[in-house]
């Protein structure tokens, strides 16, 4: 379903790669947790799956397609088969829960008859069938995230990417969101979730892929958040400190695991990663505003015709 074939991504000349020599595959129907410290390469992996950026070297495949061979005008069609859920929900503040979900269908030209059937189905699936007329600020954080998940899943994508979907939620609410993502996965959608949520990973016990400095240091079925892996930063086995990593390079023989899939190198610059994340947010927000404006204009035209 998703495959990285010897992928390296460097954003700026002279910087450490955001990901390096990445060889990994996520198969159809899997539920995978991406874990690692900030700047470890998780967001870059998701950006490449969405074709928001491309690899400097290597090949990314999604649904069997080499993304480097997909022209820009076909990218929207690719993204229709990939749902995306964010930590901060990214709902349209002036639209109701119903309209936020409707929006995802309207921008791809879904007939209104189909929209009127699918949106209530999604609201019922996420347990908000009685809150479709509420604006985002009238919903709790957990309810907003449920709307965001419904919007991401309404097109029945084969892949759902979730970037810290429980990061702004209390533990009990987060459990409900995880159960919802698990239900979507059981319906056949591949779910890849980047997270720092210890309890979520430990509770679900799915495949865990840990990143350090743009490389995979652990790929474990039924794994927990923390690990005995000597090079794990999130477990405290290796401090989140670039100077320390230079003293003890990740490709040193004593840090290698028999089942490792990639060679090791230094981490990317965390400050650069933060800047890139801000740019990504700005880019997505701008695209969302353009689509919303087009959607509003379509509604006005329809009202005029009536």
UniProtKB/TrEMBL annotation:
Keywords: ATP-binding, Cell cycle, Cell division, Cell membrane, Membrane, Nucleotide-binding. This is Cell division ATP-binding protein FtsE. It is a peripheral membrane protein. PANTHER family: CELL DIVISION ATP-BINDING PROTEIN FTSE (PTHR24220:SF470), IMPORT ATP-BINDING PROTEIN (PTHR24220). Part of the ABC transporter FtsEX involved in cellular division. Its main location: membrane. Belongs to the ABC transporter superfamily. Residues 266-282, 294-306 have a biased composition (Acidic residues). Residues 241-265, 283-293 have a biased composition (Basic and acidic residues). The keyword Membrane applies. One of its GO terms (molecular function) is ATP binding. Residues 2-238 form the ABC transporter domain. Homodimer. Forms a membrane-associated complex with FtsX. Pfam families: ABC_tran. It comes from the Bacteria. One of its GO terms (biological process) is cell division. It is found in: Cell membrane. The gene is ftsE. Residues 219-306 are annotated as: Disordered.
